[in-house]
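In response to the reviewer comment on reproducibility (Comment 2.3), we provide here a single inverse folding case reported in full, input and output, so that an independent group could reproduce the run without further information from us. The structure tokens appear first.
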């Protein structure tokens, strides 16, 4: 399978390396020239619990006019439009485009550029990864990947995508209700993204902190309430227990928003915590906790002397 992975930061590099190691012809595309040079000369190195692997693959800073069997967009939310535009010269007659980002809204952007009939949405749950150096990423957790059609992409195509990821060693599956899974993950993300970014705490520290713990729980509860009011069939009956179970799996993890703030990068907070009050406004449900958290995070980011576009960082 010919696969292009656009955006080879922490998560994108994990995807590219595993798919290439499984025998696929993978092209890694990223704007970071030192990383691209390292990959072309020495391969892509991935380390993790009990593993250290170097995978040879093709790498480039630009997309070629070469039809792919699958295009994966692993860029951050702020760069989705540019990433989707890069995909255009690599589209064959039926090439699907799989977009994997935190939060909500990326699929709509991608669909507007490549066509909604091509778009699949991916959800990465329970992953932790970080870029160590050019051409070297480290993961400390890899759990589930779930894929679904954004609009009219045939389910058989989604299943073939999931099979490619399963063959690469991921716990992967095709699902029919991707919106429910997006919101089930978002409930957890909002519980930790802004609280961790603002306090510098890990997931476990926020979860058990006497002051931030209740704020985290309130953010999760708001997201759950908005999802239900929106008619999203989330399989969650207790949002606090749901978010705590998620956090208990990776108490030492730092959400991508915290890693972004440590590196003085603008975070994806607007599509994570910020997505809740936006959707709430559509269905008449107030979400003041998430609105306040989003406003404070964005205010902090505006104070930095130098803005840096969102780059590679771990996701949870």
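Designed residues, in position order:
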């Amino acid at each position: 399978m010919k696969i292009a992975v656009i955006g080879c930061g922490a998560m994108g590099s994990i995807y590219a390396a595993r798919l290439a190691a499984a025998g696929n012809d993978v092209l890694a595309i990223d704007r970071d020239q030192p990383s691209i040079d390292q990959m072309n000369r020495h391969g892509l190195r991935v380390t993790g619990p009990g593993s250290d692997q170097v995978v040879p693959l093709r790498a480039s800073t630009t997309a070629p006019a070469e039809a792919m069997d699958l295009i994966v967009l692993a860029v951050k939310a702020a760069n989705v439009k540019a990433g989707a535009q890069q995909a255009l010269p690599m589209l064959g007659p039926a090439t699907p485009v799989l977009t994997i980002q935190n939060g909500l809204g990326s699929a709509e952007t991608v669909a507007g550029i490549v066509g909604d009939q091509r778009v699949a949405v991916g959800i990465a749950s329970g992953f932790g990864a970080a870029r160590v150096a050019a051409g070297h990423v480290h993961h400390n957790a890899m759990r589930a990947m779930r894929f679904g059609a954004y609009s009219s992409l045939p389910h058989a195509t989604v299943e073939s995508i999931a099979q490619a990821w399963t063959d690469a060693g991921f716990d992967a599956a095709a699902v029919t209700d991707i919106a429910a899974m997006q919101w089930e993950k978002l409930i957890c993300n909002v519980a930790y993204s802004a609280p961790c970014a603002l306090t510098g705490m890990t997931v476990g520290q926020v979860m058990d902190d006497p002051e931030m713990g209740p704020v985290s729980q309130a953010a999760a509860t708001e997201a759950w309430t908005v999802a239900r009011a929106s008619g999203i069939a989330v399989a969650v009956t207790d949002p606090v227990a749901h978010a705590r179970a998620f956090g208990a799996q990776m108490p030492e993890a730092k959400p991508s928003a915290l890693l972004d703030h440590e590196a003085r990068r603008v975070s994806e907070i607007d599509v994570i915590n910020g997505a809740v009050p936006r959707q709430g406004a559509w269905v008449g449900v107030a979400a003041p906790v998430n609105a306040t958290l989003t406003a404070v995070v964005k205010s902090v980011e505006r104070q930095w002397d130098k803005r840096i576009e969102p780059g590679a960082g771990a996701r949870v």
